[in-house]
Amino acid sequence: MNLMLAVIYALFELMGIVSAVHAVLRGRTPQGTTAWVLGLVVLPALSVPIYWIFGRSKFNGYVHAWRDQSLDIEEELDTVYAGIQPFLVSVPVDFPEYKAVRRISHSRFLRGNRVELLVDGQATYDSLYRGIESAQHYVLFQFYILRADDSGNRFRDLLVAKAQQGVAVYVLYDELGSAGLPWAWLAQFGDAGIRIVPFNTQRGIQNRFQLNFRNHRKNVVIDGAQCWMGGLNIGDDYLGEDKKLCPWRDTHLRVEGPAALVAQTLFWSDWYWADQSLIRDLCWEPRAAPPDEGAGQTDRRVLVFGSGPADSLETASLFYTTAMSAADRRIWIATPYFVPDEATMAALRVAVLKGIDVRLITPSLNDNWFVRHAANVYLSELSMLGARIYFFDAGFMHQKVMLVDEELSVVGSANFDNRSFRLNFEISAVVSDREFAAELEAMLLRDLAHSTEIVAFDLDAQSLWQRIKARGSDLLAPVL
Question: Is 218 designated active site?
Answer without folding.
Answer: yes
